[in-house]
Amino acid sequence: MSTDPVQLDGEEFDGIVDVGVIIKGKVYPYIEKNPLDEISLIGFALGGAVGILMGLLPYTNFKNINIYLIAVSIFHFLEFYVTARFNPGKVTKDSYLFNNGKAYLFSHALAFSEALIESVFYPSWKSSLHSNTTFFISVLGLALLILGQYVRTAAMVTAGSSFSHQVKTSQNSDHSLVTDGIYARLRHPSYFGYFWWALGSQLWLLNPLSFAVFTVVLWRFFNGRIRFEERYLLQFFGQEYAKYSRKVGVGTPFI
Ligand SMILES: C[S@@+](CC[C@H](N)C(=O)[O-])C[C@H]1O[C@@H](n2cnc3c(N)ncnc32)[C@H](O)[C@@H]1O
């Protein structure tokens, strides 16, 4: 797929950018990568899941599980929605970010299983109201989860067409260096946001095992990813990026 606008015969259809098309100077999603039937079904399923989980709240012993699954559904919805709204040239069905690899699925399965098993066998561990400690941990977790989602969404909105779910190893024509908004405070806000969202979710679930596993796995993942990504950012933007990275920190501990 070409990454530069292509001039075609028709007056209306100006060209192709990454996976999007430009019509009268405005970028639209590329229809072949956006099967509307599947996309609408996924949206319906996510909305339905949120409704069912809310409806089940009065009947669930450990309600934090419902809220966690609602937060996961909102996260995946926002990945697609924000891409479609602020980065339409790159939106595809995969923007829901369900195809995130085996480690991602395993982590959520581990978190869900741990929360469920412990809530059955050790119900007192799993009550936010059991002690001041469990109350503090779960409230801190919820605050981190909300903050993480906010920072991630703000990053995607601010970066616009410079944001892509895959790390770019060649520069697109619509890719410029973003240093304003949330990028003026954090160098990798979407990674910062997801890191704290995920750790917050495990505090909220009062999941000691998954919290430890998430911390190690996510730290290693983002540490490697940031190093890889910055090699290319330096190639694309040279001194401008070097100067920016001296001025603005990553924010994620020890990276
Ligand atoms: C998944 S996005 C993550 C962006 C950023 N690392 C963050 O955490 O907000 C990955 C893409 O963003 C691009 N990118 C990262 N930082 C950028 C910046 N400050 N300005 C423009 N593009 C950036 C990278 O080239 C990569 O293709």
Walk me through the structure.
The protein is mainly alpha-helical and 255 residues long. It has a single domain (34-247), classed as Four Helix Bundle (Hemerythrin (Met), subunit A). 58% of the residues lie in helices and 5% in strands. The chain contains six helices and three strands; from the N terminus they run βββαααααα. A three-stranded antiparallel beta sheet has the order 1-2-3, with no helix packed on it. Strand 1 (13-17) and strand 2 (20-23) form a beta hairpin. The longest helix is centred in the C-terminal third of the chain and has 40 residues, at 208-247. The chain binds S-adenosylmethionine (SAM). S-adenosylmethionine (SAM) is lined by residues 155, 159, 162-165, 167-168, 177-178, 183, 188-191, 229, 232-233. Its EC number is 2.1.1.100. The chain crosses the membrane at residues 39-59, 66-84, 104-122, 134-151, 194-222. GO terms for molecular function: protein C-terminal S-isoprenylcysteine carboxyl O-methyltransferase activity. Belongs to the class VI-like SAM-binding methyltransferase superfamily. Isoprenylcysteine carboxyl methyltransferase family.
